[in-house]
Design brief:
By secondary structure, this protein is an alpha/beta fold. Helix content is 32%, strand content 24%. The chain has nine helices and 13 strands. The strands form three sheets. Strands 1, 4, 5, 6, 7, 8, 9, 12 and 13 form a nine-stranded mixed beta sheet that branches. Strands 2-3 form a two-stranded antiparallel sheet. Helix 3 packs across helix 6. The two termini are 25 Å apart.
């Protein structure tokens, strides 16, 4: 069995208050909670530092934990919930971002199962094939490189692996074989608490990718390869309009 913790904060640079944005008569966070519940998780907790989100979540029946406002990341919120709950160190927690209303519940379960199948992995995450050269060159598309056993070697905003024999004018001309990282994680509780206790590392600070902290400290990240990328989450008003069109039209609800 596994647990899901959904970190949800009110502040957002590009779309403040998005967790409570209405979609087909329900707040965004309600849709995400329903996806988590459908995954087969033993327990689903919404972790927030904002009473407005907490009140909305309690109104639709969710379990809520109020976390410290000064926590720097969603991962830290998930770790705080794990500490309070006193989960066993080998229990599995999936960190599901609160702005992913179209996530496939089966993917959540698959990530949790990956840790059960690999006793030496500390964390599990997912990747999908990069679909275009534009995506490969986009620094907002995080690239992932793994070894033959499906263990992460590196994550970067730069185009990696670099296709040395296919570069013109300093830019790659091919992207075949490149993978984009999907920001969904499953952790063993003991690994999550260790990760949250570590200071940010040089590579993490350079790339602004917290998963590099785990790699720099020798933690093992199991990578699940998907056939295609799942629908993106909501970061901007345009993203919100796109998701509304899907869910208010009845597809994926």
């Amino acid at each position: 069995m596994f647990q899901v913790v959904i970190p949800a904060r009110f502040a957002s640079t590009r779309l403040p208050g998005k967790m409570l944005a209405p979609i087909a008569g329900r707040p965004l966070i309600h849709w995400v909670w329903e996806r988590a519940r459908a995954s087969g998780a033993q327990r689903v907790v919404i972790a927030t530092d904002d009473e407005r989100i907490a009140a909305a979540a309690r109104a639709f029946g969710a379990e809520v934990e109020l976390t410290a406002a000064e926590l720097p990341s969603g991962t830290d919120r998930v770790a705080e919930v794990a500490r309070r709950a006193g989960f066993d160190g080998r229990d599995v927690i999936v960190n599901l971002q609160g702005d992913e209303p179209l996530v496939d519940p089966a993917l959540i379960a698959r990530l949790a199962a990956a840790l059960g199948e690999d006793d030496r992995a500390d964390i599990a995450t997912a990747v999908a094939p990069i679909a275009s050269l534009e995506e490969f060159l986009d620094p907002n598309c995080v690239k992932a490189v793994a070894d033959g056993r499906g263990r992460a070697l590196y994550f970067s905003r730069s185009p990696v692996p670099w296709p040395r024999d296919h570069v013109e004018g300093g830019r790659p001309t091919v992207h075949a074989g490149a993978w984009r990282h999907i920001g969904l994680y499953a952790y063993r509780v003991e690994s999550l608490l260790r990760f949250a206790s570590l200071a940010p590392t040089p590579l993490e600070l350079c790339e602004r990718l917290e998963q590099l902290r785990a790699l720099e400290h020798g933690m093992s990240i199991k990578v699940i390869a998907l056939e295609r990328a799942p629908p993106p989450g909501i970061d901007t008003p345009a993203d919100l309009a796109r998701v509304r069109a899907v869910l208010e039209g009845g597809a994926g609800g």
